[in-house]
Amino acid sequence: MQSILQTPVAPDLYRRSHRLLLLLIAAHVVVMTLFPWIARLPGAAWDDMLEAWAWGKQFELGYYKHPPLYAWIAGTWLRILPRTNLSFYFLSALNTGLSLAGIRHLHFRDLRPGPDRLLEL
Prior knowledge:
69% of the residues lie in helices and 0% in strands. It has helices at residues 10-39, 47-56, 68-80, 85-109, 116-120. The chain starts with 9 loop residues before the first helix and ends with a helix. Mean pLDDT is 77; it is low at 1-5.
């Protein structure tokens, strides 16, 4: 019996599985941006969000509580987008989505193509 990986359909299934996974990551970013925004409406900003915004106003090499990268990212983000809860939720969801996409890239980079690789992730 011939393996599914040796059939001509396998590369197409492999490409579709990649696209499907990226689509699921994009849907995750959208849902995880909108859900906390709607669930906490009308709500005040969380303490960590305010802390990141306050520290990000001035770029320093370190802060008394955290390393600087957290504040640098939040400060840069809020110079581009408006200072709203939705912007913070989008930053958080985008960070998670980029992490998932990085994991996907590392997983599929050195492995042989095949539809069963999506299940291993």
